[in-house]
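seq:
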Amino acid sequence: MDLSTVLPLVFDTGTFVLIWMVQLLIYPSFRHYDPSTLKKWHPTYSKRIALIVIPLMVGQLAYGMYNVFYLGSPLVWLKLLLVISVWIVTFAIFVPLHNAVEKTNDGNMESLTLKLVQKNWSRTLLWTIIFLLGMLQAFIPDLS
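struct:
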């Protein structure tokens, strides 16, 4: 395996592991915070998780575009479309939800944290499919 195969796999694996941790551990844990405590903690959480998420998402997008340009196969096009879908869902749904967590009155916090868990299944599914396609691409190179 060369670097052009390993790096996309690192980004795909990183986003896959991260999204399942967010889905099963982080977002559900928000429901156990006192609303005022979550409002205080959330800005710190957001800055720290961004240090992990942003490089993974940018790397995944960059390699997706690179692979489309150099390989152009239906598999890499599908992967890139799924990656772009994650970006759209993240900025259209999750950025506003996270902003709302920091600005809401305490009475709406339970509803917001429930929405984070429920709506995050879309990203969990997308990143799981991207990971599986990346594994196929890495270990069955003829598909690329």
